[in-house]
Amino acid sequence: MTAVEPKHIANAYVIYKRLFTYVRRYWLSLVIALVASMVYSGIDAWFIYFLKPLINKGLVAKDPNFLQMAPLLVLVVFMLRGFASFFSNYNIASVSRNVIMQLRQDLFTHLQRLPTRFYDRSTSGHLLSIILYSVEQVANASADVLTTAIQSGFFIIGLLIVMFKMSWKLSLLYFLIIPLIVMIMRYTSKRVRRLSLNIQESMSALTHAAEENIEGYKVVRGFGGEQYEIEKFNKATRVNRQREMKVVAARSWSVSSVQLVAAIALSITLYIATLDIAGSILSPGGFVTLIAAMLALLKPMKDLTTMQNKLYRGLAGAQTVFEMLDEKMENDAGTQTLLRAKGKLSIQHVGFAYHLEKNVLHDIHFDVAPGEIVALVGRSGSGKSTFINLLPRFYADFTGNILLDDISIHHYRLSDLRRQFAIVSQHVTLFNDTIRNNIAYGSFDRVGEDSIIAAAMASYALDFITELPQGLDTLVGENGVLLSGGQRQRIAIARAILKNAPILILDEATSALDTESERYIQAALDALMRQRTTLVIAHRLSTVEHANKIMVFDQGRIVEMGTHSDLLVQDGAYAKLYKMQFKEIEVAQ
Q1: 554 burial via Cβ count (<10 Å: 0-12, 13-18, 19+)
Q2: Nearest to residue 422, comparing CAs of 346, 534, 336?
Q3: HSE on the CB side for 135, CA within 13 Å?
Q4: Which domains does the chain have, with CATH numbers?
Q5: In what order do the strands lie in the sheet with 407-408?
Q6: Which DSSP helix (H) or strand (E) runs through 554?
Q7: What is the pTM of this model?
Q8: pLDDT band at 512, cuts 50/70/90?
């Protein structure tokens, strides 16, 4: 179960109250909808009442004045009803869409402030399901519920007034069914809400399966996994269908039961009403009006029953949304400001664990002077990238301390701290935007055209950019799919150059480049590194021979430290790695 999946059914009142804080922001539209709905439902109830004089005066007494006036009155009144219906539906929809917009904006904003650990334990499919499906459920429920509750509620009130005006005794008899209807609705509502939470979970699994397949389509086809993926997706859709059908069954049972109870009560009332007519208590018009009102009650009662099911689906969605909004934000308690660091780093006995039971870093301890180049080498999984993630406080719950310019990184404001680092990773992230905006990402308001071109030139990206039909305005596709691996890497390096941070982190930054491109890029990086503190993670040891210090990681510890020549003389772990790569190169040649 992911971090934001609902683990229990929360108190409905608490969710109502919180959801209302979003709805009340649009109180004017809500008031207009309320008034318009009162008019709309009042006219419907009036028309039922109008049946009495229509029968008594028009059909029985054949009053000529009434017969001339009645059609015109009905036309005018129903024109007013049409206007009321428009204003009611439009303003309710306006409130609903504003709520969904605000919820999605709040969710997305909150996601930007959640810690890295939250993303470690959450799938992207589940998060997308909440932003898209769960919020939409809340909006649909709020729109349908508001429309039904207001219009059907006022219509029922109007019909009850008509019924009591015709015969209060018979109307009271009809009221005897209300406790039974309430019991049916309460039972169904609990079941529907529980099932709705299950649907949220199945939609998350469905979204995740589809997204994972789309993102990894090359691997799927390359390894012949199409049938496996189809079966996995089909299973997710079957589970979703089964859970949806359980809700349909519960809703259908509820509606049918309410209508059956109402029909029985109506039959009894109808029998007694015929006795009243025989005793001249009710006129023909009064009898028809009473029965019409009772029959008309069935639809709003059915709508209210259906509304309740939609409401609880919306509440299940709202619960999921609010649970994500309640996720604890990234700790940013630091108050120290920092415009530009000198680049001095002091790593003091740092330890870190992804999970409480096992540390992945142990007692990491070294210093970096401003402008120094420090290389981190070691086998895959030795802790190099994990350590790098601690510097900009992507993970803040490490033991020991890390000082930047002699001040703990915990004391800096996060935005100021992260502005000091430019990171180029082996896993390049590009956005579905232009090359220009990808290079200037994070610096849109601070850089001009000349700076972007200069960064592209320094990263040797300008040559291939100018060959593209739209140059810097070329769209790169999702995650840069329209560019080659080397081109994507150069764009990422240009982005880091443009940021001009005092500390540069290169995590296998040239791993995706061919030999010729790597030579050009390495020259650009060498010039860039001379002006700032640089930490380099490298698999190819030939790229770090000129580093001021080399830290050799093994199983989360620094086992050796020194220059390239010193470490070769020691003939330890570094020398062993170096000789192994040298032999691999000889074999390849």
Answers
A1: middle
A2: 534
A3: 22
A4: 12-325 (1.20.1560.10), 333-420+505-511+539-589 (3.40.50.300)
A5: 361-368, 345-352, 399-404, 407-408
A6: strand 549-554
A7: 0.77
A8: low
